[in-house]
Amino acid sequence: MDLPKLSIAALGGTVSMQASHTGEGVIPTVSGEALLSSIPELTTLADVSVETLGLLPSASLDFGFLLSVLSWADFQVKLGAVGVVIIQGTDTLEEAAAFFDYLWPYDIPFVLTGAMRSASKPGADGPANLLDACRVALAQNSRQRGAQVVMNGQIHQARNVRKTDSLALQAFSSPVVGPAGLLLEDCVRYLRPPDPRTVLPLPEQTTHRVALLEASLSADTLLLENILALGYDGLVIGGFGAGHVSQRWATMIEHIAERVPVIVATRTGSGSTARASYGFSGGEMDLIRKGVSMAGFLCPRKARILLWLVLGCRRQHELGRYLDHDTRYQN
């Protein structure tokens, strides 16, 4: 019997890291092929192809590189892959997953995974996470779910997942909604059906820039005053509470929103921005009157990715529609 085709790309990250000398920090050195050799069971599940597209800490990934990974994944589908798995670092895993989810046009599963312990550490979690990710990518019930993150036996939707711990094995969670599924006794079990998805076209331009700033107590306005002069094409604010800023920030944001799109999200880590609760200067009702878009459940980091993609495909006039869509997904 022919085995299903599964394509894996390794980008680097902790899962690929080990120290060259005792006492030195770990660095990316382990290829995807080497990672795969530690999981012989996988060859009984699929006809696997693996490519090492990079050996980078995920903090050094960028949108251009992710677009090249997406092109690679698209080619794998054309070659007959029934699932795609991406191995990368966890520092930007939630952001990369959202980036891919906005652009992945297929029903075929697109699964990202990584590790919290380096390859050379006792109890390294990389092999188990990779095997779990492959099981998810091969599962028929994973279709039509866009990009997903598989870590520590849990399956998370790309738009919901957050890295909520810096070092713990259970570093990833989906605030408010919880994981989309679990791996139980090597079986992929989903806790809810797939959500409808809106997929953006590939960006026509990639040189534009979107700034991300966080509101904080007694913050000055110097950066805001210079956003337009610095050439930014969009701005995302991680606001207080349900999407609030100081009165001074609100005044500056009004001027910026006259020129470029501005999104205000909540910096809290969970929950949604409001729309009709607070009327003070700098509250969400005031900001909406000033031309600001509220992010809903979308976190500031993913709001920046959405705005960059929307600007790239010249659909900024439809930004509200995409944000309204996302508020249904509890992100």
Helix content: 25-40%
The CATH class of the largest domain turns out to be Alpha Beta
The helix-strand sequence is: EEEHEHEHEHEEEEEEEHEHEHEHH
Q: Which homologous superfamily in CATH is the superfamily of the largest domain?
A: L-asparaginase, N-terminal domain
Description of the structure:
There is one protein chain. Helix content is 27%, strand content 21%. It is an alpha/beta fold. It has two domains: 5-190, Rossmann fold (3-Layer(aba) Sandwich), CATH 3.40.50.1170; 210-323, 3-Layer(aba) Sandwich (Rossmann fold). It has an eight-stranded mixed β-sheet with strand order 4-1-5-6-7-8-11-12, with helices on both faces. Strands 13-14-15-16 form a four-stranded parallel β-sheet, with helices on both faces. It has a two-stranded antiparallel ribbon with strand order 2-3. It is globular. Mean pLDDT is 95; it is low at 327-331. One of its GO terms (biological process) is asparagine metabolic process. Keywords: Hydrolase. It comes from Pseudomonas fluorescens.
